[in-house]
Amino acid sequence: MLPDFDINFLIFGILPYAVLAVALIGTIARYERDPFTWKTSSSQLLRRKQLMWGSVLFHGGIIVLFFGHLIGLFTPVWVLDVLGIPYGLKQWIAVLLGGTAGIVAFVGASMLLHRRLFDARIRVNSSFADIAILVALWLQIVVGLGTIILTLEHMDGSEMVRFMTWSQSVMTLQINAWLQVINVHWLYKVHILLGMVIVAAFPFTRLVHMLSVPIRYVTLRPGYQVVRSRRRRPLEERRRAFDKIEGKTRRPAAPTAAE
Predict the structure, then answer these.
(1) Which of these, 135, 153, 162, 189, has the minimum number of CB atoms within 10 Å of its CB?
(2) pTM: predicted TM-score of the whole model, two decimal places
(3) Domain residue limits, the chain
């Protein structure tokens, strides 16, 4: 059976379920075990103006892209048929709306990436995960814009239906879902694969802050306050010094009647 093995089955038939499991379990585990890391680790005190513009453009564009993909991929095809929406019209809406949002997100992501890579102070205060996830998002946007060029060659919506059917088949646990995308252009496959990589990395990066509104604030879980101390000595050293002083000054308790 090994010679008949198809890498497409592994990537588009099995990998999606592994990615969803990692994202779900990893997110829950991080929220329960390391709640104090559930933050964006903002560097807004450094080059704030570039951060403001880059952040606004990136978040505005990426939010439109996220919900556009969510609605576009998971709306059942029969809904379009019932509403009488031509596939070609939906394709044009996706190209125009997605292309505009993609360009906006690309400009914002480029500003944020330039700021993080070429400002020495910000680079020092950035972790590997901070840089890696931003690079992955930037590449995903670039590849996504590239797929628009391919999409213009088939505006009848046939390829769009393929991706819709694949996404919905994965969610309904249909084992042959991968066959829907086996013959699409390799750039589409790279776009899907990068998307799964980003989803799998979600719990281990600052992307988890996306869930701050529906989880941290809606569920009314108590928050926390970050306090920065000016004391230079480590906490444990200060605690030992305090215990030593207390041990010297503390008077022995008076004996009780039983003693």
Answers:
(1) 153
(2) 0.75
(3) 2-232
